[in-house]
Amino acid sequence: MATAPDQPVMRAYLRDIEASFELPRAIGPDATLALSDTAVPLAGHDASSVQTAVTHVLDIRGVEERNAIVYALNIVSTIRMASRCSVALISYAFPGGQSIDAFETNSLVWGHYDQTLTVDTVTWVESHLEDLKPYHIPESYSRIGNAIRLHGAALHTGNADLALLGFVGAIESLFSGRSKIRPPWRRKTRPLGSWVEWRNAAVRRGRQDAGVAAGWRAFLLCSRR
Predict the structure, then answer these.
(1) Global pTM?
(2) How wide is the angle at C-alpha 62 spanned by C-alphas 56 and 67, nearest 5°?
(3) DSSP state at residue 47
């Protein structure tokens, strides 16, 4: 379906987010974050159709309509890997009036309780989004894709014990079989004896989700060297 030049292919409605930089702002080549009350009206939708809790929109352009929701999910998932931002997806809307619930209206996101979205987080997302995109919905098994699925499932479970298991499993999936990888803070000293030791230390500190976020960063930094 053809879309007017000023209309996005799809719009994702967001809440629990406060950008610390000027909006609108591009996030990569095909997405733009904007305040909901200043965004260009979406064809077929009026203000009454938007929930009052919505504060921001993520407009997707430059991708096929069938891939737009997945692309928005990739961006939000990568934001959650890079930070503790509490951003929640509320719904998706398409020009012409169609809307789809994103099922995060009352969802818990473990460890993500800060509404602030910083420019550093957005820069990290832009740097790694293309690297991570093939693993969000992979066509074949990979331990990175498996870790992303475990991380996403753990973030939204209502059971604290299951969340802990998911975060620990994500870390183990990331680093199993890569004993030569060193975390950035120890790369110049000596190889890390055991990722399990680092994982256990993170869990003991009660920072399992922060440990996963650090794990993504460590993995991507090391795998690029």
Answers:
(1) 0.72
(2) 80
(3) G
